[in-house]
Write a structure and sequence with these properties.
The complex is a heterodimer of chains A (367) and B (81). With 367 residues, chain A is mainly α. Chain A contains 12 helices and no strands. Helices cover 77% and strands 0% of the residues of chain A. In chain A, helix 3 packs parallel to helix 12. The chains are: A mainly alpha (367), B mainly alpha (81).
């Protein structure tokens, strides 16, 4: 009975993480589209939500589930997965609150690493995996996207520089609809997979599915729906940061950022190299801005974003570890996850209520 | 201190870097050429319709077709990973 309740809690928590993933990462896809007025805000997030939903069905290759090669797979239990998910959700909400784009995947990995560390000690953590799948890609993604978008926008200005600005802006706005759509599909494919992997892992660990089983159809549909709903609700604070606070973009810069970002993400996908969508797009936005005028980029804000990236792994690991520790105070049954879930929901309601009392500073209409 | 080759596949990393550069710059260049083609074709048709109009229009269509081909390739990459 307890294991059934834990399984249900893990599934619901995984879908909640998927929702925050869509909510948090909407900005990657739509921020520049909205800021250059290529699409109205609500249309842009609806478009991204639909493509995220369909993107989740494009590939069901979940062999490389979360934290594979980063923690000892044999040691993962539903309670460790639960701790990891809570760590990731909490960090996503913190960075959303401060309007900072950060990697949901790294948050999830950090959360699982922290929970596994408390559960099984340092031997459970594979340091090479963290370096190879988190640290090095986190360095490569933004630098590569920065460079490609920077050179890309200079070539664009060189090619279209003598044309009237009207048709050029209209053309690149149209291009942003295409490149933004490709990014949304890629995001749905990559990130909904992680939730499918988590739920499938929990179903296998609880004996509901056999080892190596494919995710059931209801898992695919629910993960696709959760990320699409999250995307539709849109994290407007991060959209504002990515779309206009780092730099005020023109349509050509928006296209260069999205097109280069999509190229980098798809090149990495093709080779099987794990790059973060958030790091890639953030780097591309800064590159497209800095190439036109270096001082146009708000480097102080860019520095805060980089600090958030550096903190993602240790912070979510800390929360994951704390969650696992608190959960185990109540034993290995369902009471611990129930209490932690209730505390998290109460905290989220309190934070949202506080924000509502303060008034939302960033809305879809402003976007 | 582990050598980087034991942590990641350096060949994959180099492949990602050059593919990203080629694909990213190709998208920017080809889409810009499509815009140039459409803009010049419109101007040319307004001023003196003729071979130049057709040439610019053909350039625009070819470039736009190349961009759409890259998009389709991107979707294939996603589905085949």
């Amino acid at each position: 009975m307890d294991s059934d309740i834990i399984l249900i809690i893990v599934v619901v928590t995984a879908l909640a993480f998927d929702f925050t993933n869509g909510f948090h990462d909407t900005a990657n896809v739509v921020a520049t589209t909205i800021s250059t007025r290529a699409m109205p805000p609500k249309i842009a997030v609806s478009y991204a939500a639909i493509l995220n939903f369909f993107g989740a069905f494009l590939s069901l290759e979940v062999a490389a589930t979360i934290a594979s090669g980063i923690v000892e797979a044999d040691l993962i239990t539903p309670l460790i997965v639960f701790g990891g998910l809570i760590g990731a959700i909490a960090w996503n909400l913190v960075t959303w609150y401060f309007g900072l784009p950060s990697s949901s995947s790294h948050a999830l990995i950090g959360g699982v690493v922290g929970a596994a560390f408390v559960a099984a000690g340092p031997d459970a953590i594979l340091g090479e995996g963290i370096l190879g799948k988190v640290v090095i890609p986190a360095l490569v993604a933004p630098i590569l996207a920065f460079g490609v978008a920077g050179v890309g926008i200079l070539l664009i200005y060189r090619i279209v520089g003598r044309l009237h600005p009207g048709p050029v802006s209209r053309g690149f706005r149209f291009g942003q609809i295409i490149s933004g759509g490709l990014l949304a599909l890629a995001h749905g494919t990559n990130d909904a997979q992680k939730t499918m992997g988590v739920i499938t892992l929990a179903l296998i660990a609880s004996g509901e599915l056999g080892a190596g089983a494919e995710p059931p159809f209801w898992v695919v549909v629910s993960a696709a729906s959760a990320i699409a709903f999250g995307t539709y609700f849109g994290g407007w604070r991060i959209i504002k940061t990515m779309g206009s606070r780092i730099i005020k973009m023109d349509a050509a810069q928006g296209f260069a950022a999205q097109g280069s970002g999509a190229a980098v993400i798809l090149a990495a996908t093709h080779v099987g190299f794990p790059l973060s969508t958030t790091h890639t797009i953030s780097g591309a936005v800064m590159g497209a801005g800095a190439a036109k005028r270096f001082s146009a980029v708000r480097w102080g804000l860019a520095g805060n974003i980089v600090i958030a990236w550096i903190l993602t792994l240790p912070a979510s690991a800390g929360i994951g570890a704390l969650t696992y520790g608190v959960t185990r105070i109540f034993g290995t049954g369902a009471l611990g996850p129930i209490i932690v879930s209730a505390a998290l929901v109460a905290t989220i309601i309190a934070v949202f209520a506080r924000r509502l009392r303060q008034g939302s500073p960033i809305t879809a209409a402003e976007g | 201190m582990l050598p980087i080759a034991e942590i990641i596949d350096v060949g994959d990393l180099i492949s990602v870097i050059w593919t990203s550069i080629v694909a990213g710059l190709a998208v920017c260049i080809v889409f810009s050429l499509a815009i140039v083609g459409f803009a010049r074709a419109t101007d040319s048709r307004r001023e003196r319709p003729g071979v130049a109009t057709f040439g610019y229009f053909a350039m625009a269509i070819l470039a736009f077709g190349a961009v759409m081909a890259l998009v389709v390739f991107g979707v294939i990459v996603m589905t085949s990973k």
